Amino acid sequence: VVSTQSTGGCLGGLLSIWAQQIQVEIQVREPHKLQQIFTSFPVTMLGSTATIHVPDLLEGEKKDILFSVSLAESSKTEREDFAFINAKYKRVSSPEIASLPTTTLCIKRREMTEEQVKQLRTQASQEVDQQRNRVLTAEAIKSAVQAYEANPNNLEMVRNTLLQVKQRLEKSSSRDSTFTRGLVSDVDECLLRYRSEQAVRSGGYAWAQQAQQQHWGQRANQNTNVSYSNQSQVCMQGRARHYNGP
């Protein structure tokens, strides 16, 4: 039995690769520091520049790369550029390497009370919060896979980790968004599949392996509760579902 949705997704991916060998460069200006890049894509460092290597992008596809920067203290109040982002890629239809315009990140400091700072930190944009939640979910499911590999009898610890992440998702600022609700559903799915050793052996382990890879790579080819589809995949999936044979 072949899943028409999976078949359609694979065909859509093969026929709609738009760019390959994508390199995203993040350069943080001193004295500020790039703290961490939350991605499963390979990262190389050269001085103060980090390069994220993304294998390919499908037509209409989007990848979000979350990273954190430690800003040095300063009494300056004027606008200050602190980071620069560049990207280049190889077009499938052309041998040439294409580059995107530089994106400049800047800050403008102002005096704030401790309460204002606290409010500002809790009012992160919904999109950024959703990406934080995606990373949390991917890390939690990955830890479930690794914990089972290390000790198949310690499912209680795995479930406790998943429950803690679920609570964080449900308290996040984007908790009512479709995206975060989908992540919560995937954590629930992982809890269900890790309810017993038999459940893990009967597909739970394989599901968790695929799910964490899909959340890291932001490309789903199985029935998860979060959609990372693009237009080409949706089109191919629709055709595959439409033709079910005689």
Give the low-confidence spans. Answer: 1-14, 231-246
| Strand content bin | 15-25%
* Outline type: globular
The order of strands across the largest sheet is: 3-4-1-6-7
Enumerate how many helices there are, as a single number: 7
Radius of gyration: 21 Å
* C-alpha end-to-end distance: 15 Å
Whole-number mean pLDDT: 83
**What's the helical proportion of residues?**
40-55%
Largest sheet, described in full?
5 strands, antiparallel
Structural class call reads alpha+beta
Instruction: Give me the count of strands.
Output: 7
Q: Please trace the helix and strand order, writing H or E for each element.
A: HEEEEEEEHHHHHH
Characterize this entry briefly.
It is built from 7 helices and 7 strands, in the order αβββββββαααααα.
Give a verbal description of the structure:
The structure is a single chain. The chain is of the alpha+beta class. It has seven helices and seven strands. α3 (126-150) runs antiparallel to α4 (155-171), α3 (126-150) runs parallel beside α5 and α3 runs antiparallel to α6 (197-217). The radius of gyration is 21 Å and the shape is globular. It starts with a helix and ends with a helix.
